[in-house]
Design goal:
The complex is a heterodimer. Helices cover 0% and strands 53% of the residues of chain A. Chain A is mostly beta strands. By secondary structure, chain B is mainly beta. In chain B, strands 2, 4, 5, 9, 10 and 11 form a 6-stranded mixed sheet that branches. In chain B, strands 1-3-8-7-6 form a 5-stranded antiparallel sheet, with no helix packed on it. Chain B starts with a strand and ends with a strand. Classes of the chains: A mainly beta, B mainly beta. Chains A and B meet through strand 5, strand 9 and strand 10 of A and strand 4, strand 5 and strand 9 of B.
C-alpha cells in the first residue's frame, strides 16, 4: 500500500499565531512530497515541492518565509504557516511520490485551517 | 511545459447514465496521465493512470479512460453512473517520473436520482 497521513485534520487558530501541519508517508519512503492549497470549489494550487534533506522549491508567488517547509526524513514533511491571518484559511493537502509508481502521487486527507 | 484543460467545470447525469468527463493535455514529451477523485473534505484518490502500453486504461469503481495521442486527450468514462460517483474529478499530467504533476481545474460530477 501507500498511505499518507496528515495531522491535524482540522485546526482553528488566532490571527498572528503559527500553525504546523505534518505529512507522513506511513508505509513507504518518500523522497519527494508536495504541498497544495485548495480554495473552495477550486483546483489544487501547488505551493512547494519538498525534497528530503534539501530546501523546498516554492512555486512563484508563494512566500517562503510565511510557509515554512521542512522535510527532515524520508517519511515526514512539515508545513508551518507563520503569523497566520484570516486570508490563510484554506484546505491544505500534501502528497508524496512513491518510487517506482510512474509519477503517481499519494495524497493525504487534508488539513482544514481556519484563522480567526 | 505541460498543461491540462478539463472541459466543463460541472457535469450532471442521471443515475445509470453514461459518465463522460473530458480532459485535454499539452506536453512536450510523452506524458504520464492521471485521473483523481476527491470527495468532500478529503484528499485525492487515484482512479487510474496511463504511463505506457495499452491506451485504454481501466481503473477503480468501473471507470476507464483512453489515451488518444492524436487528439491529446484522456477522457474519463463510466458506462453507468451511481449516486456514489458524485464528487470532484481532477485530470493531471506529468512529463517525467520524478517531476511534479499539473492538475486541471476539476470537474464536479452530480448524479441525479
Amino acid at each position: 500500500g501507500a498511505v499518507v497521513s496528515q495531522h491535524p485534520s482540522r485546526v482553528i487558530c488566532k490571527s498572528g499565531t503559527s500553525v504546523k501541519i505534518e505529512c507522513r508517508s506511513l508505509d513507504f519512503q518518500a523522497t519527494t512530497m508536495f504541498w497544495y492549497r485548495q480554495f473552495p470549489k477550486k483546483s489544487l494550487m501547488l505551493m512547494a515541492t519538498s525534497n528530503e534533506g534539501s530546501k523546498a522549491t516554492y512555486e512563484q508567488g508563494v512566500e517562503k518565509d510565511k510557509f515554512l517547509i521542512n522535510h527532515a526524513s524520508l517519511t515526514l514533511s512539515t508545513l508551518t504557516v507563520t503569523s497566520a491571518h484570516p486570508e490563510d484559511s484554506s484546505f491544505y493537502i500534501c502528497s508524496a511520490r512513491k518510487p517506482g509508481t510512474s509519477g503517481e502521487q499519494f495524497f493525504g486527507p487534508g488539513t482544514r485551517l481556519t484563522v480567526l | 511545459a505541460q498543461s491540462v484543460t478539463q472541459l466543463g467545470s460541472h457535469v450532471s447525469v442521471s443515475e445509470g447514465a453514461l459518465v463522460l468527463l473530458r480532459c485535454n493535455y499539452s506536453s512536450s514529451v510523452p506524458p504520464y496521465l492521471f485521473w483523481y477523485v476527491q470527495y468532500p473534505n478529503q484528499g485525492l484518490q487515484l482512479l487510474l493512470k496511463y504511463t505506457t502500453g495499452a491506451t485504454l486504461v481501466k481503473g477503480i469503481n468501473g471507470f476507464e479512460a483512453e489515451f488518444k495521442k492524436s487528439e491529446t486527450s484522456f477522457h474519463l468514462t463510466k458506462p453507468s453512473a451511481h449516486m456514489s460517483d458524485a464528487a470532484e474529478y481532477f485530470c493531471a499530467v506529468s512529463e517525467v517520473d520524478a517531476g511534479k504533476s499539473t492538475f486541471g481545474d476539476g470537474t464536479t460530477l452530480t448524479v441525479k436520482p
